């Protein structure tokens, strides 16, 4: 589902690479079901990374599971409001976010219409497909940054070959080393933005 689309960049004539990012644990610290501004603390290096990507001509696209909506912890409206607040925080630093896609569903704990095994929920690649429908993307040169294997699984399924797994906050992947198509990093400053 779409929370935000930058219409200026959504129908470019020539394909641009995209920097795809998970939200919780990559853009902001993952305290668990963050839906309030006061709990939204930006991760170190995120402004620098997105600024570099902007200048290099990458689209910046956020793909985030938000099962907290499905679980009834917060509403889509609250998520939308926090999204706009976040986009403005980036805008204050001259950083343009191009799209925010989210999946509010959960196959077990979702309530009502949100109780659904859905392709948009990572490790499904549905949010990447939504992004590909909305933007003219050069998938071969696109990147993904996530802090869970499910982020990377989703992006590999979508055909992305340059994946960064951030283990900064994530204890579960402490001992993981680089494997094919995945580079394990401990800081956002290690994401390599190639010129295009
Ligand atoms: Mg995450």
Strand-residue fraction? 15-25%
Helical content (DSSP H or I, runs of 4+): 25-40%
Strands of the largest sheet, in order across it? Answer: 1-4-3-2-5-6-7
Reported by name, the CATH topology is Rossmann fold
In whole angstroms, how far apart are the ends?
A: 29 Å
Question: What class, by secondary structure content?
Answer: alpha/beta
Morphology: globular
Describe the structure.
There is one protein chain. With 196 residues, the protein is an alpha/beta fold. The protein has one domain: 3-Layer(aba) Sandwich (Rossmann fold). It has 6 helices and 7 strands; from the N terminus they run βαβαβααβαβαββ. It has a 7-stranded mixed β-sheet with strand order 1-4-3-2-5-6-7, sandwiched between helices. The longest helix has 16 residues. The protein is globular, with a radius of gyration of 16 Å. The site of magnesium ion (MG) has 7 residues, from loops.
Short summary:
With 196 residues, this protein is of the alpha/beta class.
Characteristics:
196 residues, alpha/beta, Rossmann fold, seven-stranded mixed β-sheet, 6 helices, globular, binds magnesium ion
Topology of this protein?
Layout: E1 2-5, H1 7-10, E2 18-21, H2 46-56, E3 59-65, H3 67-70, H4 76-91, E4 99-103, H5 126-134, E5 143-146, H6 149-157, E6 162-166, E7 182-185
Parallel strand pairs: 2-3, 2-5, 3-4, 5-6, 6-7
Antiparallel strand pairs: 1-4
Bound molecules: magnesium ion.
Residues 22, 24-26, 30, 147-148 line the site of magnesium ion (MG).
């Amino acid at each position: 589902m779409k929370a935000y689309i930058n219409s200026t960049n959504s129908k470019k004539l020539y394909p641009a690479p995209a920097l795809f990012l998970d939200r919780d644990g990559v853009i902001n610290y993952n305290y668990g079901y963050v839906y309030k501004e006061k709990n939204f603390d930006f991760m170190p290096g995120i402004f620098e990374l997105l600024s570099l990507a902007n200048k290099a001509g990458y689209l910046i696209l956020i793909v985030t599971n938000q099962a907290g909506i499905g679980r009834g912890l917060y509403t889509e409206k609250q998520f939308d409001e926090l999204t706009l607040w976040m986009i403005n925080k980036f805008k204050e630093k001259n950083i343009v976010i191009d799209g925010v896609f989210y999946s509010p569903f959960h196959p077990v704990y979702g309530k009502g219409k949100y109780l659904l095994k859905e392709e948009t929920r990572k490790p499904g690649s549905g949010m990447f497909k939504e992004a590909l429908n909305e933007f003219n993307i050069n998938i071969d040169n696109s990147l993904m940054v996530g802090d869970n294997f499910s982020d990377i699984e989703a992006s590999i399924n979508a055909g992305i070959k340059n994946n960064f797994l951030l283990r900064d906050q994530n204890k579960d992947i402490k001992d993981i080393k680089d494997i094919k198509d995945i580079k394990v990093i401990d800081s956002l400053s290690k994401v390599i933005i190639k010129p295009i």
